[in-house]
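Thread: "does anyone have the structure for this chain?"

Original post by V.I.:
We have the sequence but no experimental structure in hand. Need at least a predicted one for the grant figures.
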Amino acid sequence: MEPTGNEPDKVAEAALEAVSEAVELADRRRPRGRLLSRRRLAGRAERARGVRQLGGVLGSAARRGAHVTRRGVASGSRWLSGQVIAMAPRLPVRDLAVLRAQFPGRSPEELADALIDGAARASAAVGAAVGAWAVLPFLPAAGAEIATETLSVVGIEIKLVAELHEVYGMRAPGGVIDRMTSYVGAWAQRRGVALAPGGLVLAAGSPLGRQLQRRLAARAGRSIFSLGPLLTGAVAGAMINRRETRKLGRMIRDDLRRRSPHRVGWPD
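Reply from O.Q.:
Generated one for you, tokens below.
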């Protein structure tokens, strides 16, 4: 499966929208301190509205794309891997200059921690939003909702992988498609990109391609927990997503830190 830049299906397009919604929701800071109790309550209400809005985006996407993705969902992780490859170059990845401007005064380690925490919150928001479908009077078409959550969370995590490479001065070589395909490989392998000439290629039948499919199958399996009865699915989905995204981010960070030119601080 080579990086071709093909257009993603409707569910993958909606997952891209959900990534932006979830990241924006995660960036809303929680006020701290006893004197800010009213602001905390207002913040909780705002986040609840954000989760409902995100759930609407995801649910509507799954319904719209169900007829398009029915055959794809049936084919499982192979279809998902193709959608991830098509989706990755369209993810809103920030470069180092933008990241340092948005997080002024942070060291590379502090900035990496902030990115991991933000991605974990965004991933949890997706799990909570999908879990809320269980209490709606209707449900999206079977299978499409799992595909939508899977692609949304994977999109958040690949965006995190790409931005961690920026933080540690380890940007993958090549154009956008080649570079983002390399980050998909890093997501599958749970380690940073090796800066070899030409980057990485996910060829059909290759060990890396099969590893990507296995990772996606496992990720889709975890998405099922978000569809539990009443609101238990929302709690389980948020908890599992937060834990797994944070674990991935720390693995990538630890690998990049060992090889980074920024491990002792920003260059002059």
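V.I.: this helps a lot. The radius of gyration is 18 Å.
O.Q.: and The chain has nine helices and no strands.
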